[in-house]
Amino acid sequence: MKKSFTVLDLPKGERPRERLLRLGPEVLSSQEILSVILGRGTRGKSVMNIAQELLSKFGNLKAIAGASVEELCQIDGIGPAKACQIKAALELGKRVEGQPEDETKIEIKTTQDVLKVVRPRLKDKKREYFLLLLLDSRNQLIRPVDISIGSLDATVVHPREVFKEAISASAASVICVHNHPSGNPEPSEDDLNLTKRLVQAGKLLGIEVLDHIIIGWQGYYSLKSRNLM
């Protein structure tokens, strides 16, 4: 049987990890970056071959980032553990891209301020995500929090989870945000009912719900600006 080419067959200075240490990550190809994330291959299949198969199947890193764990596991040599490594590494890159140098000092004055914080976190999501922005008494961002991950067209959110995070952070107010993977940001009846429940709960607790913003690739919908809360 013909021996599979492995990273160890490369001169030491040309191996992806050594090149990263010597020259920095900027010089690495997408295949090399994926091979560093994966760490090692399997018996009979090198990590470089697995990385190349990923790129051949999905086309580019953005498509790989959008693939599910199940889809990644269709590549021979990738199991759930390696698929999770890929998903985590690429998600981290997306979050870094959209995070200001000092996220905790952002003052949230407008819907556009909210979108700058949440759009990178919701970009390319195929399921509904419900996020919460926790604000202090000066409307400065304490931190964004992931509250719930749902299905393609719904997410289950309970006021208890929302205000548990707000109370823990001593937040003075909150802004709710969730995405519609369909692309249409128009609120559903469930969205309107949930918003009403959150506003009522916030009044009882002394934590104001400033807005509920829905994001889709077609745009965004602010319930506050439409006088729906």
Q: How do the strands of the widest beta sheet line up side by side?
A: 2-1-3-4-5
* Strands, count: 5
> What is the CATH fold-level name of the largest domain?
Cytidine Deaminase, domain 2
Our count of helices gives: 9
Shape verdict: elongated
Q: What's the helix-strand series?
A: HHHHHHHEEHEHEE
Bin the strand percentage: 15-25%
By CATH, the architecture of the largest domain is named: 3-Layer(aba) Sandwich
- Poorly predicted runs: none
Description:
The chain has 2 domains: 7-97, Orthogonal Bundle (DNA polymerase, domain 1), CATH 1.10.150; 100-222, Cytidine Deaminase, domain 2. Helices cover 42% and strands 16% of the residues. The chain contains 9 helices and 5 strands, in the order H-H-H-H-H-H-H-E-E-H-E-H-E-E. It has a 5-stranded mixed beta sheet, with helices on both faces. The relative contact order is 0.09.
Summarize the structure.
The chain has 229 residues and is of the alpha+beta class. 42% of the residues lie in helices and 16% in strands.
